[in-house]
Amino acid sequence: MKFVVKQLTKGVPRLGKLIELNGKxxxxxxxxLVMLHxxxxxxxHITHEVLKLVSNNPHILQIPLVSVHNFKEAMDYFDGAxxxxxxxxxxxxxxxxxxxxxxxQQGFNAKGKVPVWTKNGKVQYNSESYMKTxxxxxxxxxHLLSDGDTNQSSTQKRISKAVANTNAFHKECLEIHRTSxxxxxxxxxxPIAGGYSISQRxxxxxxxxxxxxxxxxxxxxxxxxxxxxxxxLPFSDxxxxxxxxxxxxxxxxxxxxxGCWNPLTIIKLVKLGVDIFDTSYCRMLTERSAAMTFPIDxxxxxxxxxxxxxxxxxxxxxxxxxxxxxxxxCLKYSRGYIHHLLSVQELLGxxxxxxxxxxxxxxxxxxxxxxxxxxxxxxxxxxxEIYFTRYQQEILLPQKExxxxxxIY
Length: 409
Ligand SMILES: [Zn+2]
Fold this sequence. Notes:
Blueprint (H helix, E strand, L loop, with lengths): L1 E4 L10 E4 L9 E3 L1 E5 L10 H7 L5 E5 H4 L3 H7 L3 H4 L6 E5 L17 E5 L2 E5 L1 H11 L3 E3 L12 H23 L8 E6 L5 H11 L8 E4 L14 H14 L5 E3 L6 H10 L3 E3 L1 H8 L2 E3 L13 E3 L19 H5 L2 H9 L4 H26 L3 H19 L14
Parallel strand pairs: 4-5, 4-13, 5-6, 6-9, 9-10, 10-11, 11-12
Antiparallel strand pairs: 1-2, 2-3, 7-8, 14-15
C-alpha cells in the first residue's frame, strides 16, 4: 500500500490517494477519507450486505482491537486475514488499539503494558503479545502499540510516562515487524504521544521520526480518552498540538486522527492537513437516536443540524429523515415510522438511522475533497458552522423537548 499526496505542502488541506492496496491493485482511495468504524468486524447496526446498499465503493474498515480481541484464537485456526474472517474480502482493514466510540478507562497504563477492556474484562498487552495478535489478524494497516492515556487534564508526570512508553513500544514493535513474514506488506501507522505538552510532543516526534523510512503514516494520539465527549472538545484546545505535530511530520506520509469529532472540527483538522478520520461519530449519534441533517451541498431543504427521532414531534411526520437524501432509509421510510420503531424498541430503528448517518457522512467527505479541489473549503466550513453553533446552543437550553417514553407503548 502506498500513499501519494497531490501537493507536498505542510499545514494546508490536501488531496491524496492510497494506491497499490494489498491484493486490490485496481482500487484507489482518495483522501481526506473516513474509515468505517466497526465493532466485532461489522459497522454497528448494519451488515456488510446492507452497507453495500449504502455505498458500493471500497472502504477502509477500522477494527478496534478491543472489539475483536476474542477472535484471536479463531484467527489462529483460520490462518487468513481479518477481512476474510469477517466476510468482507473487498475491504481494507486497519487494526487500531482502542474503540473511539467508547470512553477508555484512565489511569491503568504501566511501564511496558497497555490495558484493553474487552467483554471478558481487562487484558494487558505488551509489545510481544500485541504483535502476535497483529500477526494473527494480518490487517492491511495497523497502529503500533502506544500509550495514549492523556487528555487536557493530564499531569506532566503522566504525559512524560505516556511518551516514554510510546517510544519504547514503537521500537519493540518495529523490531518484531522487521522479521515478520506475515506483516511484510502491512502499512505501519506510528502513534505520536505527548498530550497537550509541546515539549513532550517534541520529544516523542524526535524519537519516532528516526524510523520514518519504515512507517507509512502517523496517528496524532493522546488528545482524549475516546467516547462521546470528543464531540465538544474545543478545536482551539487541540489546534496548537495538531499544528505543531503536522509541521514536524514528513509531508509525504499519512496523518491520521481518531475520535468522534464533529463535522466542523473535521473541516478545521482537514485544513491543518489531516488525511484520515473515522465514523465513530455516526455511531454515537445513532445511539442517541439522532440523524444528521446538516446541509452538505447547500441545496438541501433543512434548517436543522440533526434531528432526534425519539422526539414526539416526529410521531406524525411522514417526510424522510432528510428531503432529497438518496440513502436507502430516506428513499423508503418516514420519520414517523422510524419514531414508532424506536418507541417499541425495534432493532430496525437504529439500523435505518445508521444507514442514513453513514451515507450522509460519506457524502460529507466527498464534498470536502471536492471543495479542496475547487479551493472553496471555507465556504463549506461557514455553512456547517452556522448549523453546528445553533445546535450547540439548543442542547445547552435548560428545557428539553419531550421524547417518547418507552413504557407508554
Ligand atoms: Zn438518508
